[in-house]
From TrEMBL:
Species for this entry: Georgenia halophila
Domain AMP-binding enzyme C-terminal: from-to ranges: 542-627
GO molecular function list: ligase activity
Residues that bind CoA: 203-206, 322, 534
Keywords (A to Z) from UniProt: Acetylation, ATP-binding, Ligase, Magnesium, Metal-binding, Nucleotide-binding
Sequence positions that bind ATP: 398-400, 422-427, 511, 526, 537
Protein known as: Acetyl-coenzyme A synthetase
One Pfam family recorded for the sequence: ACAS_N
Binding site for Mg(2+): 548, 550, 553
Family from the record: Belongs to the ATP-dependent AMP-binding enzyme family.
Length: 665
C-alpha cells in the first residue's frame, strides 16, 4: 500500500512513498500507430481551448441546431457551453446510430447475475427507449420534470435514463444500495414526480428487494404520483393501485415511435447526489451539450475506443457518476458495444468477471482499484482459468491506485501488454479530467499524470500559489471545462462556498495532489471530511448524523481509516448516553449495542456506510473551541500513536481512547 496511506488531512504525508515509484511503461509502437489519441492534441488544445472543444462538440455530437458561441463564463462560477445550440441526448446516444446504418450493432450485452442474458442492438434500444419515453409521458412526465430512478444494473436502468433524456426530464438516479431514508431525502430535494424501480435485483446469488424501499420512502410523504415497476426477480411486492404501474404493461401499450424533444445545450440532463463535507447530500447538476461532448471525447480517446470492433465493459453501477458517464452516455454516444453485468464479481465463483471477459471478448475494461485489489487477494488462479487475450486497454477510477495493484492489473489481467489508464475525475467534473492517453503517454504506475487536452489543472499551496515540480498541495482546476457541474440543485450559495471560495476563481476539488519532478500529477486522497470507501464517496458528517439519530448515542465521530482492500473503511467512535451506560454496565450489552448501531447506519444511509468498527468511548478529543479532532482519531484507527495533542482541551482523552482501543482489539 502506498498512496492509500496518504493522510487525508495532510497532502504532504503521502509523498514519501510515492517518490519511490520510478517505473515507466512507454506505449508499444504497434499500439501508438493505431491509437485515436495523438501527442499533437495537447498542442492543438493549448493553442485555442475553446476552438478545440467546439471542434469536439461538432465532431462527436449531432446538433439539431448548431451553436455560434462556445463558452460563456460571465456568470462565473456557472459556465455555459455551446449555449445557443440545440440537441437531444437520447437521439445522440441511439437514433443517429440507427440512421447511420448501425441498427444491428449490439449496444448492450446484458449478463444477469444468475446467468440469464439479453442482447440489445441499437435498433432494439431505440424501440425500448421510445416506448419508455411514451410511457413516462403517459404518466404525466413533462420536459423539465424530475424522475427518480432506483434500479439494479439491468438494461432498463439505461433505457430509463435515455427515455428521460429523450423528453428532457432530468433523471435523478439513486444507487440501489441506498436506504429508503436516503431515497426519500433525494426524492424530496429534487421534487421528483415519478419513480422508476424494480421488484428487486440479483446480488450474491439471491434476489434482493428494491420496491419495499420505494414504498417506505413514499410513505414518508412526497409528491410522487406514479411508480413504474420493472419485474426482474418476480418477488412478491406490495401494490398501490392507481400509483404503481407495471413496466411491461406500460411499455407494451406505448407506441414504439417517439420524437426526441430538442433541448438547449444548457438544459439539465440529470441530478446526481453525492456526499459532501456536511450531512446533507448535494444534488450535482449536469446539463446536456458540454457534458456529452466531454463524455464522448474522453471515452473515445482515453480508452482508444474503436466502436466497430471493441467490446467495452465498465463495472460501475449506474447509481454512481461512472455509470452515468461511462455506461450510459459516453459509450452509447460513441456507438460502442458494451457489456452490462448485474451482479458481484464472486458469484457463483471468484472468476465471474474473467468469465465475462472471455465470453464477450471484452477488449476495454474499466473498473475501480478496490475491485482490482480484491481480485489480487483472491489470487491469479481465477483470471488464470480464462483466456483474457481480447483485452487491449485497462482503466482505473474512483481512488488512487497503488503501484502494486497497477502492475498486477497490467501483468495478470492485461498479459503484461495493455496500457493502463488511471483516470481522475469526480461527480462534479462529469467526465475524466486527468489521465494518461494510451498510445501517447509513458505510463507511471500510481499516477494519473496529465490533464487531458483542453483541461487546465494546478496544484496550489495553502497560500494559493502554484507549487513547483516535486512538491505537493491542493488540486485545483483553473479553467472551466465542458462537462463541469452547473451547480448544486436548489443551492447556488453552497455551490460557490464548496468549490470556489477556498481559492478565488479556481475550482477546488477537495483532493491533495503532488507534482513529480516531471510535472506529472499523483493524487493523494481527500483533504476534507469526505471518505472514499471502495471508490464510493461517503461523508463523515453524514454517518455521524446517522449515529447520533439513534437513541443510545450522545455523540459520534467518524473517520476513514486505511484499508488494504477498500482503500478506506469507516471507523466510528461513539459516546453513549449516560442513562444507557449506567443501565448497561457489566451486563454485556456493548456488543449488542454496536451491532444495533451498525444496522442503524445501514438503514439510515445504506449498507455501504456501515462502520467496519465502532468503539464506545467516554470522551472525544476536542479543541478548546469544541471541534472534534478527527485527525487524532484517524491515528488511533490506523494503529499509530496519536499525533500532536497540544491543542486538545483535555490531553488525557487520547490516552483513554487508545487504552480503550487496545482493550477492544
Ligand atoms: C477520488 C468518481 C485518485 C478523488 C469518478 C475524487 C481518485 C473522488 C481517482 C471523486 C483517481 C477518483 N485517483 N483518486 N484516479 N478517481 N478519485 O465523485 O478523491 O464518486 O475527489 O467520482 O474520488 O469521487 P466521485
Amino acid at each position: 500500500m502506498s498512496q492509500q496511506s496518504a493522510d487525508a488531512a495532510q497532502p504532504e504525508a503521502g509523498l514519501e512513498n510515492l517518490l519511490h515509484e520510478t517505473r515507466t511503461f512507454p506505449p508499444s509502437p504497434e499500439f501508438a500507430a493505431q491509437a485515436n489519441a495523438t501527442a499533437e492534441m495537447y498542442d492543438v488544445a493549448a493553442a485555442d481551448k475553446e476552438a478545440f472543444w467546439a471542434d469536439q462538440a461538432r465532431e462527436l455530437l449531432t446538433w439539431s441546431k448548431d451553436f455560434t458561441e462556445v463558452l460563456d463564463f460571465s456568470g462565473a462560477p456557472v459556465a455555459r457551453w455551446f449555449a445557443d445550440g440545440k440537441l437531444n441526448a437520447a437521439y445522440n446516444a441511439v437514433d443517429r446510430h440507427v440512421e447511420a446504418g448501425h441498427g444491428d450493432r449490439v449496444a448492450i450485452h446484458f449478463e444477469g447475475e444468475p446467468g440469464d442474458t439479453r442482447t440489445l442492438t441499437y435498433a432494439d434500444l431505440k424501440e425500448q427507449v421510445s416506448r419508455a419515453a411514451n410511457a413516462l409521458t403517459e404518466l404525466g412526465v413533462r420536459t423539465g420534470d424530475r424522475v427518480a430512478v432506483y434500479l439494479p444494473m439491468i438494461p432498463e436502468a439505461v433505457i430509463t435514463m435515455l427515455a428521460c433524456a429523450r423528453i428532457g426530464a432530468p433523471h435523478s438516479v439513486v444507487f440501489g444500495g441506498f436506504s429508503a431514508e436516503a431515497l426519500h431525502s433525494r426524492i424530496i430535494d429534487a421534487d421528483a414526480k415519478v419513480v422508476v424501480t424494480a421488484d428487486g435485483g440479483y446480488r450474491r446469488g439471491k434476489p434482493s428487494s428494491l420496491k419495499p424501499a420505494v414504498d417506505d420512502a413514499l410513505d414518508k410523504g412526497t409528491d410522487v404520483r406514479h411508480v413504474l415497476v420493472v419485474e426482474r426477480t418476480g418477488q412478491d411486492v406490495a401494490w398501490r393501485e392507481g400509483r404503481d404501474v407495471r413496466w411491461a404493461d406500460a411499455l407494451e401499450s406505448a407506441s414504439p415511435e417517439h420524437t426526441p424533444v430538442e433541448v438547449e445545450a444548457e438544459h439539465p440532463l440529470y441530478i446526481l447526489y453525492t456526499s459532501g463535507t456536511t450531512g446533507r447530500p448535494k444534488g450535482i447538476m449536469h446539463t446536456t451539450g458540454g457534458y456529452l461532448t466531454q463524455c464522448a471525447f474522453t471515452h473515445r480517446h482515453v480508452f482508444d475506443l474503436k466502436p466497430e470492433t471493441d467490446v467495452y465493459w465498465c463495472t460501475a453501477d449506474v447509481g454512481w457518476v461512472t455509470g452515468h458517464s461511462y455506461v450510459t452516455y459516453g459509450p452509447l454516444v460513441n456507438g460502442a458495444t458494451q457489456v452490462l453485468y448485474e451482479g458481484t464479481p464472486d458469484t457463483p465463483d471468484k472468476d465471474r468477471w474473467w468469465d465475462i471477459v472471455e465470453k464477450y471478448k471484452v477488449s476495454i475494461l474499466y473498473t475501480a482499484p478496490t475491485g482490482i485489489r480484491t481480485c489480487m487477494k483472491w489470487g491469479a488462479e481465477y483470471p488464470g482459468r480464462h483466456d483474457l487475450s481480447s483485452l487491449r486497454v485497462l482503466g482505473s477510477v474512483g481512488e488512487p491506485i497503488n503501484p502494486e495493484a497497477w502492475i498486477w492489473y497490467r501483468d495478470t489481467i492485461g498479459g503484461g501488454k495493455t496500457p493502463v489508464v488511471d483516470t481522475w475525475w469526480q461527480t462534479e467534473t462529469g467526465a475524466i479530467m486527468i489521465s494518461p492517453l494510451p498510445g501517447v503517454t509513458a505510463a507511471k504506475p500510481g499516477s494519473a499524470q496529465t490533464p487531458l487536452p483542453g483541461i487546465s489543472v494546478d496544484v496550489l499551496n495553502e497560500a494559493g500559489e502554484s507549487v513547483p515540480d516535486g512538491s505537493g498541495g491542493y488540486l485545483v482546476l483553473t479553467e472551466p471545462w465542458p462537462s463541469m457541474l452547473r451547480g448544486i440543485w436548489g443551492d447556488p450559495q453552497r455551490f460557490y462556498d464548496t468549490y470556489w471560495s477556498r481559492f478565488e476563481g479556481k475550482y477546488f476539488a477537495g483532493d491533495g495532489a503532488k507534482k513529480d519532478e516531471e510535472g506529472d500529477i499523483w493524487l493523494l486522497g481527500r483533504v476534507d471530511d469526505v471518505m472514499n470507501i471502495s471508490g464510493h464517496r461517503l461523508s463523515t458528517t453524514e454517518i455521524e448524523s446517522a449515529l447520533v439519530s439513534h437513541p443510545v448515542v450522545a455523540e459520534a465521530a467518524v473517520v476513514g481509516a486505511k484499508d488494504a482492500t477498500t482503500g478506506q473503511a469507516v471507523v466510528a467512535f461513539v459516546i453513549l448516553r449516560s442513562d444507557v451506560v449506567e443501565a448497561g454496565e457489566d451486563t454485556g450489552e456493548a456488543s449488542k449495542i454496536i451491532a444495533d448501531l451498525r444496522n442503524h447506519v445501514a438503514s439510515e444511509i445504506g449498507p455501504i456506510a456501515k462502520p467496519r468498527s465502532i468503539l464506545v468511548v467516554a470522551e472525544l478529543p476536542k479543541t478548546r473551541s469544541g471541534k472534534i479532532m478527527r485527525r487524532l482519531l484517524k491515528d488511533i484507527a490506523e494503529g499509530r500513536e496519536a499525533g500532536d495533542v497540544t491543542t486538545l482541551a483535555d490531553s488525557s482523552v487520547m490516552d483513554q481512547i487508545s487504552k480503550g482501543m487496545k482493550g477492544s482489539s
